[in-house]
Each structure stands twice: as C-alpha cells, then as structure tokens.
Amino acid sequence: MNAKVILLIEDNASDIALTERALSRNNITNALVVAQDGQEGLDYLFGEGAHAGRDVGALPVLILLDLKLPRIDGLEVLRRIRADARTRRVPVVILTSSREEQDIAAGYDLGVNSYIRKPVDFNQFSETIRQLGLYWLVINEAP
Amino acid sequence: MNNKSARRWSLPAALAWMRRSTSTNMGRRFTVLILLFSSIVTLLATALQLELEYRRDRRAIDTQLQQVRTSYADSLAASLWSASMRDLNLQLQGVMRLPDLQFIEVDNEQNAPVASVGTARAPDVVTLDFPLTYVHRERTLAIGRVRVQASLNGAYRRLREKVVATLILQTVYTFLVSLFILILFQLMVGRHLKRIAAYSDRLSAGQFDEPLRLERRVSRANAHDELAQMVAALNSMHQRVNSSFADLRESESRWKFALEGAGDGVWDYDVPRGTVFYSKRWKEMLGYAEHELADHLSTFERLAHPDDMRETMRILQQNIDSGSSSFVSEHRMQCKDGSWKWISSRGMVVEWDAQGHATRMIGTHTDISARRAAEQELARLLAQTEQAHAALRVANDTMESQVHERTAQLERANQELEAFSYSVSHDLRSPLRGIDGWSLALQEDYAALLDTQGQQYLGRVRSETQRMGQLIDGMLEFSRLGRAALAPREFDLSALAQTVAARVRDANRERIIEFHIEAGLRGFGDEQLLEAVLHNLLENAAKFTQQRTPARIEFGRMQTADPQSRLPVMALFVRDNGAGFDMQYAAKLFGVFQRLHKSSEFPGTGIGLATVQRIVQRHGGTIWADAAVDQGATFYFTLKESP
Q1: Is B437 close to A125, i.e. CB distance below 8 A?
Q2: Which residues of B touch A123 (CB under 8 A)?
Q3: Is B555 within 8 Å of B622 (Cβ atoms)?
Q4: Are B359 and B351 in contact (CB under 8 A)?
Q5: Is the CA virtual torsion B416, B421, B424, B425 positive or negative?
Q6: Which residue in the set A15, A97, A119 is minimally distant from B425, CB to CB?
Q7: Could you tell me the CA-to-CA distances from B540 to A1, B578, B605 in Å, in that order?
C-alpha cells in the first residue's frame, strides 16, 4: 500500500464504496482515509477531536471533497483548508453531484484545484477517477 | 251776487285779499305795490300842488296888500292930513271891498287909531303895516301908519276844495293806471309766468313731455324778449334734464338689471337716523312682500342670525368708524318661513358729514346659500376624499407591505426552488450513480452467477438509470437556463451556427449531414443561451434525419408570417428533411417532457424544445414550427431586435 494518503470527505456510504471501487479498479493504491462529514475531515487534517495527536505534518497527497456534507459543508471545509498555512498547498478536488454555477464559482474563488461533477454512469465515473489519479498522483508535481 | 260783492268790498275781506295777494300771487302783489306807490306819488303830487296853490294865493294876497299901499297910501295920507274923517272912512270902506281883506286901521303919528274898518282876528291872517307920509313944503312928513289885515281863510277854503277834487281825480287816475298795468302785466307776463310755473311744476313732478310753448302770437317785437329767453332757457334745460334723466334712467335700469338680474337686494342705510331702505328684491330674498318689513336697521337686526350678528355689526361699525372703502360680510338671515339663508352683504360708505362721520352707506345682499351649500358639500366631499385617500394610503401601505411580503415570499420560494434544484441535482443523482455503479459491480463481479437474461435485466437497470440521470440533467438545465441572467450583446450568428453544426457533425460522424448555413447573419442576445438554442435545434434536426442520406439541415433568415398576428416578420429558421411530425400535435411540441415520437425511434428527454422556447421567450421572441409527417420540419424563431 502506498503511504501517500488520499483524504475522501464524503458522507454517502454508497459513493464512498464506489470511489474505493473505482480507485482499486484503476490500480490507485494510495491509502484512502474517509471522513464522513466536514468536521471530521478538518479534525483529521488538524489533528483534533477523534484524530487528536495525529502527526499533522503528514499531509494527504490529495483531498477529494464533496460539497454537501453534514455539520460543516464542503465549501467551508475548503475555506479553512486554504486559510491554514499548513494545509494551504494541499491539492483539493471537489467531487460532487452538483453542477450549480454558484458552487463552481465559489469553489474556484476559495482556491480549489479542480471541480469535477460525478457522472451517473459508473464507467464514466471510474474513468474520471482514473484520470484524477493519473494527473494529481503521477503527472502533477506536489509542492 | 250782492253778498259776494259785499264781501268782496268789505274791509276785512279786502285786507285778507291783500294779504293773500301779497303773499301768493305775484300779479296781485305787483298790483298792490303799484297802488301803494301810485298813492304815495299821488299824495306827494297833491301836496306839492296844494303847496303851490297856497303860495300862489299868498302871493295874490301879498300883491293885494301892496296894491292897497300903492293905490291908497297917498289918498289916505291926504285925508289924514286934512283930517277929513269922512273921506278917510269912505276910503277905508272902499279898500275893504277888496277880497280877503278883513281889517284896516289908520293910526296917527302917536300911533293912536284914527279910523278902522272890519275886525282884527288873530289866526291865519297876513298883516301889512306901512307909514303914511305927506309932502309939505318940500318936506316929507310921517303923519301916521296904516295896518291892513288879510284873512287866509279864503285861501284855505279854496285849498280844501282843491284837495278833495285833486285827491279824487288822482285816485281814480292811479287806480285806472294800475288796473291797466295789471291787465297789461297779466296779458303780457303773468299768464305766461303762470304757464311756465305750471310747466315747471310738471317738470319737477317728473312729467317730461313736450317742450314749453307760450300762448301768444310770436312777432318780431317779442321774439327775443325776456319771456322768450326764459322759455328758451327752460326748454334747453328741459332737454338737458330730459337727456340726463334718460341717461340716468338707463343707467339705473342697467344697474337695476345688473343687481336684480344677479338676484341681489339693495340696502341704503341712513346712519344718523337709523333708517334703511331695503329694495323689493332684498325683501323677496327672505320671502317677504314689500310692505311687510320696516325700513329700519332693527329689521336687519331682527332677522340676522344671532350667532352672526355680532360679527356682522362689528364689521359694519368698523367700516363706519374707519372710513375704509368697503366691506364684505357673510351671515345668515331668517326667512319668513323660518328657514335660514346665507347672505353675502357688501357695502360702502358713500356720504360723510363735515366731521368725517359716515352718514350714509349703501350695499347689496347676495343669496349665497347655494354657494355655501356647495362649499359645505365640497368640504364634505373633500373630507370624504381625504378619508378615501387615507384609506387608500393605508391600503397602499398594506398592499405595499403585502407586495413586499409576497416579493419576500417569492424570493424565498425562488431560493427554495434553487435549493430544491441543488438538492435534485445532488441528492437524486447520487442514488442513481449508486444503482448504476452497483449494477455494474454485480455484472462484473457476479457475471458467472447470472444467465443471459439476468445480464440483460441488469443492462436495462443501468440504461434506465442513466436515462433518469439525463432527465434530471435536462430538468436542471431547463431550470438553470430559465433563471440565468441575460448578457445580451451583438455577435456573429452565422459563425456560432457553424461552430454548433461542426459539433453536431462530430457527434454523428458515421452519417452524411449537409449543413447549409446562411452567411453574414448577426444576432443580438445572450450568446451562450442562443448557442444552447442552436445546439438543441440542430441536434434535433440531426436526430430526426437519421433515416435520410444525405440529411440536409438548413439555417437562415427569411420573411414569413407570424402564426398569431399573421403579420409579415423576419424569422430565423432551422429546416430539415427528416421525419417531420403531425401538425395536430404541434401545440405539445414545446411542453416539458412532451414527446411526439417513440423513444425507441428517436430517444430524447422532451426537455430540449421546452428549453429552446424558454430562451427565445426570454429574448422577447417567439418560436413556432411547420412540419408534415415524413416531409421534414422547419422551426422558426424571432429575437428582439438590437436596441
């Protein structure tokens, strides 16, 4: 297993499983950490709450962020990630069902690296995940 | 007759007549004055005449006495010298025969009487003494004196006789002359004066008829005499008065007409006396006949409304005191039937006494009840209007707040709708993705456990899922395009169509599609949205021409008739040679989820044309179609011209 963690912040269990399936289908072997709401995602990143004591220096290589989340929504999570010096440079990809223009605009305004709408067709979804992995984990030079 | 004449000539009657005459009739006074004057003249003349007569008589007596001296002195002296007493007496008796002589006496030188005839009587006598001289031896010797006395009685008697005769004569003469003058005066002046007086009376009584003409023959002698001048003056005055009276009457009638025509009453207030003349109309206004109201200020005070009285009298008094030119006051007055009328009283002081106090005021009364009623009605209506306004304002405010509320509700609803769209796009698509993903997982991981039919079923599940995903996407697109803000500008429509056509051709590479796109078309609107329109229409055309080879799709601009107004209009069009459709279903063409073809033949969501229509309508245009089954279809649409 690859030591570089991918953080998936997503509340839908089916989507989590499908994402895991798509990752494995495309031979992306990075460890997948799943946070099921915005607060949990932030706790993981900043070593708080349930993740207290975690080495916050070990940043995920990629954050896949859903927008519609319990407790703290995706855009707020993004804002806090970008507001903190430690996490500012972590690539964040919004992966969501919404194609609302305001969401897209707000996402880019807050410094998201990509905005991807999850297709209904799993084959297309799988293909998207493959390309994401290829780009962010292989092609792209991490900071 | 006798009685009458007796009375006429009785003294008191005469005196009375004289008094009457002197006081009234000018002719008679004239007569009396003539008589008086004539009588005085007569008396004076008579007195003068008597005086003259008396003097003449005296002179005659004096002359007689002197004659006695001249005639008898020498003979008497001789008789006395010779002392012939008989001669002396004879001589004396001869002297006494002379008229008026009553006594003669001869004295000697010792003044002793020698001889005398007649008797000496004291009063009314003329006496003459003269000496008797005798010339003896060349010497004149005074030998005695003679005294002769003549009586004036004879002269007096004659005078008396003369007085009576003269008086009677003079009186008759005077009377006759007076009578003549009187008659002459009457004829020449008096009767004319009378006539003039009568005429003047008529004139002053206001009878302005014909000019005055005297009853006399006009001759050269009297054509310009005083009477003629007087008549001329009177007639000219009459004419002037007549004309000015006519003017006055005209002006008065005009004035009356103006006032009465306007229905105004007139009052004329004599301030010191407290009397007021009220015109007929003034009284009529209050329902009274002319004789029913006294011409006094108390009438006004009695009829004026007590509440208004004080103020009105104050205004009146102020006007009297201050001498300001005019005043206006409005007050109520009671009519005969007990009702009240609103009266506008206007007046002004027109006469002042020497001290500057107002003595006369005149003015009018105007019935302003109708105006007052109208004013009250107006005020009432204004109040009502004001109320209505207030109500309206309240209603407006309410409405405004309701509008605000509704707007807020609408905004909330819109927000909810957006939230709903968001939800739909997010929440509904997630399970679909799950269904599709897990169906695929089942196909991939458990393919060995499913027979061919099971595999097919799973395939159906997946395709239906994906179709639902498309429906949701279409619905979201429809909602998004309907809500998106327009960013209109001018752009190259032909170029846009070429781009879209290329994209459609790319999506249908296996087919032969001929695009005929008119060059040089300019469009005005939101380019992105219009791109969606063109994309939908061209894609549609491509879809429904899939059985044609080659498929022919045309885009251009042409003049056609607006289906509703039937007016000629320049419309953009997309024409194809595809399957077309039955025009009886044309009404369903642009409805959401409405489809005219079986999914198996021409798959689709039924949202594309609805979206197109919505965008065209948002651009102020209309869209319609013309088609026949298997004859191809033409979609026409218009856009609002650039501003």
Answers
A1: yes
A2: 440
A3: no
A4: yes
A5: negative
A6: A97
A7: 50, 10, 11
